[in-house]
């Protein structure tokens, strides 16, 4: 490539920077482009076109907010910003929006290949099907099942892509850093970035994140990933707005307070008959040691204790109060969110007991234990096919797209606000003709039996699960931290044996890191340094900071042993750190746990390895063992016990089934999303119907006949349309105009009622009477009149598209070759037809 400004790569052998200074400032990249990737990058400089939201295909994403979102991304990308985050409520068409985005970017020459990442195989399959439906020319590839197939859009799970990046052929990576021009992250959250962030750092691509979590609930780390201010995504379209517009249906929430799930079960409050049942139950091994329990707390209900009457009351309430279809004869599609597999099985069993006529097909458990889970999901997705009740354990909380779902049952507590919103989203989709051919889905029922709405009212942010680092990372960091205490202090480690052991273990782990692994390569300078044994002898605080933040967590080829042994290693390390830092409370907490382990191991005396340590285990249970203990003695304890702890059985709680009388303490309706008296869609239908039935209205007649309008005419028309929306009329009308993209009310009305054919013919009369025109040229003018008659308005650019281009592939310029003034006159006539519509005053 001669005569072109080169793309500039700079590197010190470890860190690489790319500077395409015709388009972007310098940026850090994971390596060098392959030859074909570099050629494509150079070609894009001259081939990529200005991004214009008008190029977005209505057939893929025609709703106003979808185009607005794409336009917002275009604005970001056009300003040399390479990342964007969309917040869109579940059911508003996130996937279709990004399909339209990919299509527009590919046609504009910005993107050749795109990668769509999702966290579950079922979501990958769903996305591939969506691309095949709406953009088949992109040749979508499911990388989970078609690893060698080529295409223009690739869809994959995060773990699969982590493995594929490292694949190479004769030393050449299949997926170079420039292989994809666009990476799309489905449900972009902190947890995804923490586990799979290496993917986004590896590919040098435009990055678009999607999330259904409301903008205020998206965590700061996610905004940081996309270089955005907290609470300010690239674009947002949330549930309340979507409900008001009529693109989603709202939940109708009922909280049902059952006594046993709220209060638990107290033996002393039971009837004599129920006490006898309590005493006859098999409570498991703990009964022998502690006697019969006197109460079971609420947290145990539906966790390991399942009560018949509780489940029966939930099912009865659902069957009586839930939305019905087929004239009220059948419960509409329903998802019951169960607490665990045993709970789900119990619900299914109780349903089958009460409704044996359905032969076990109506309600089915769909979770990771199900043999054909995807087949059950596919059947549930079909309107008239069983199952009609899906009893889900974490499988249908997200990603399932079944518009017919009209009932959700929360039969488990939810603490994550993100997950809660995703679960609510299972019911929000529109479903025309759900109840009868003329009765659409207007809302969906939510029955909360576990006080979730109360919880989120008191704790608006919810409680997110801790995103702790993997065990191997925690072990590495703890060892580095302990080494930091030992190296400067000879008192803690007089003979340096513990320091040497820690260094040997840490060095072995780093030495086993494969430099060809793509994650390791991104930290190669630090890895190579600490793969030298001498680097460990004397370390500064800065060295340890590099080990803690950069090297901890990198993949190592060093073999690991039992997880139980490594968990015990971590406990022992935490005790050593507590001792070194004089943290008595932490030390005592872990000491008690270790003493308990020693007691449990004594019961395994029949095992030779345990038999050899019996005296030591007995000594550990004496207070004198711990008096004045040193780090070296804790290390000896770790080495003696780490090989024994795998012999301890993992305790499983005995499942208990009861049939105690439950009762409903109260029922409350909750407002989760404000339900508008009239949605945007309902209002639009009424406006269209009014205009269609009032073509003889004075102002509408003037619009159709292309007569000038006065300010009074327009005010009267606006008042008429506002009244249709009742008290929210002005807001609904403003929203309708915004969604339509019309520059004025007159333009919008004309686009609905069309133009009187006589008026359209009059506007173009001189063209029709021009005897020098060929039959094709006359037909062209007639087609313009047809369009204006049907649609009322017409963009000049439409003259270069079908059906006009069907007359001549070269468009009007070629069709009217030699008659340049005719083309100009046609454009001027169209402008004249539209001139009275472009502003408020006609």
Automatic annotation (TrEMBL):
Q: Which GO terms describe its cellular component?
A: cytosol
Domain Helicase ATP-binding: start-end pairs? 75-232
SUPFAM superfamilies this protein is in? P-loop containing nucleoside triphosphate hydrolases
| InterPro entries the UniProt entry points to | EcoEI_R_C_dom, Helicase/UvrB_N, Helicase_ATP-bd, Helicase_C-like, Helicase_Restrict-Modif_Enz, P-loop_NTPase
Q: Which GO terms describe its molecular function?
A: ATP binding; DNA binding; hydrolase activity
Look up the record and give one Gene Ontology term from the biological process aspect.
Answer: DNA modification
Quote the PANTHER family the UniProt record gives: ATP-DEPENDENT HELICASE IRC3-RELATED, TYPE I RESTRICTION ENZYME ECOKI R PROTEIN
Its name, as the record gives it, is Type I restriction enzyme, R subunit
Q: Which organism is it from?
A: Nitrosomonas communis
